[in-house]
């Protein structure tokens, strides 16, 4: 059962992100400022995490140096504040489905960065290495399919959409001109690039400071302050800071408590157990969930290209996970053999899981 926990947590994280894509898109269509949203979201997450960090890690957490605090601050700036603000701007210009789809560039970028930093390996002479390469190719093919092939749309079975809004333009309406659509897609790709950097940096930070809950709390606190100054620069109209008691409040509470709070902690747990690439390769699942949920809740049309792209991405996901699982089994076997044969000399194993 313990071996299945990372996979179960991985699916749960993507379900939480599905809610983020759908609910935040509904709130933006309802008029919520994307800059103000980030401030309130991170503040809500901090309110949740600070008491938990004090209760559970007040005595067990190792001391923090100034240099480590600076690293956490920079990670919050890159992996949360910058990427979240860019992503939300892109989401306004496009749709929840596109937002989830562009997030699937994360595995490719993260894997490339992990290779450069020697946090990940890929031996094309082995079956596991070929499976990883095939998985990345399938993910890229899925992204290209969604981006360049729309195809016919499927008629919705349900015509009542609980979170739909009359000003929503999620079905390629006038508000979503080709220029704005391309602009939004470009901004989203930039956001996922910075998010990928954040995943890799988080893996490095966890090696230096293993207290996941306190680390997540500090990131949320730093990003709250950073996002506040960003919002003060770009959103000076005081009326835009007022929150309606509808989808706007729901989006802030859900994304603050569930996404920024719970999911960030679970991400840190997953990265610590399996590495950043393992987490990043699960993003295709969120696309499948988002296509279904955005159609039901927002009334977004499901196109054939989205379905085909989703199938390719899920195939790529399981191909890479199979390759990583195969390598883990071989690595553990090598460790056991070396330990048994060289125990008297106190030799250390050269094989380290990510």
Automatic annotation (TrEMBL):
Instruction: Report the GO molecular function annotations.
Output: transmembrane transporter activity
Annotated signal sequence range: none
Q: Please, which domain of life does this record's source organism belong to?
A: Eukaryota
Membrane-traversing stretches: 7-28, 34-56, 68-87, 93-117, 129-149, 186-206, 213-234, 249-266, 278-297, 303-321
- Identify the keywords attached in UniProt to this record, alphabetized: Membrane, Transmembrane, Transmembrane helix
Record flagged with keyword Transmembrane? yes
Q: Where in the cell is it found?
A: Membrane
Checking PANTHER family in the record gives: WAT1-RELATED PROTEIN
Which family, according to UniProt?
Answer: Belongs to the drug/metabolite transporter (DMT) superfamily. Plant drug/metabolite exporter (P-DME) (TC 2.A.7.4) family.
Q: What is this protein called?
A: WAT1-related protein
Organism field? Cocos nucifera
């Amino acid at each position: 059962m313990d071996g299945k926990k990372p996979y179960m947590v991985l699916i749960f994280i993507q379900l939480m992100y599905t809610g983020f894509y759908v609910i935040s898109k509904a709130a933006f269509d309802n008029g919520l400022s994307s800059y103000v949203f980030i401030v309130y979201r991170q503040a809500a997450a901090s309110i949740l995490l600070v008491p938990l960090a004090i209760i559970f890690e007040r005595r067990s957490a190792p001391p923090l140096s100034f240099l480590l605090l600076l690293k956490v601050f920079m990670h919050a700036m890159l992996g949360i504040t910058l990427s979240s603000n860019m992503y939300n701007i892109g989401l306004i210009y496009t749709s929840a489905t596109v937002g989830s789809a562009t997030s699937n560039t994360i595995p490719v970028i993260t894997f490339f960065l992990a290779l450069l930093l020697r946090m990940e390996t890929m031996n094309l002479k082995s079956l596991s290495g070929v499976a990883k390469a095939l998985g990345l190719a399938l993910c890229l093919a899925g992204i290209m399919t969604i981006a360049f092939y729309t195809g016919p749309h499927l008629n919705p079975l349900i015509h009542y959409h609980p979170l739909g809004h009359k000003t929503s333009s999620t079905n390629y309406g006038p508000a979503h001109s080709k220029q704005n659509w391309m602009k939004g897609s470009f901004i989203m790709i930039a956001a996922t690039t910075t998010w990928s950097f954040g995943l890799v940096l988080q893996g490095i930070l966890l090696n230096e400071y293993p207290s996941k809950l306190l680390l997540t709390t500090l990131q949320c606190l730093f990003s709250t302050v950073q996002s506040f100054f960003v919002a003060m620069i770009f959103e000076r109209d005081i009326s835009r800071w007022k929150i309606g008691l509808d989808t706007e409040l729901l989006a802030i509470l859900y994304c603050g408590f569930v996404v920024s709070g719970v999911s960030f902690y679970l991400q840190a747990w997953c990265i610590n157990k399996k590495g950043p690439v393992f987490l990043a390769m699960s993003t295709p699942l969120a696309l499948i969930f988002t296509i279904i949920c955005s159609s039901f809740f927002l009334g977004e049309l499901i196109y054939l290209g989205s379905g085909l792209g989703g199938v390719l991405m899920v195939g790529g996901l399981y191909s890479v996970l199979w390759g990583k699982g195969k390598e883990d089994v071989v690595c553990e076997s090598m460790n056991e053999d070396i330990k048994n044969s060289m125990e008297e000399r106190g030799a250390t194993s050269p094989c380290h899981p990510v």
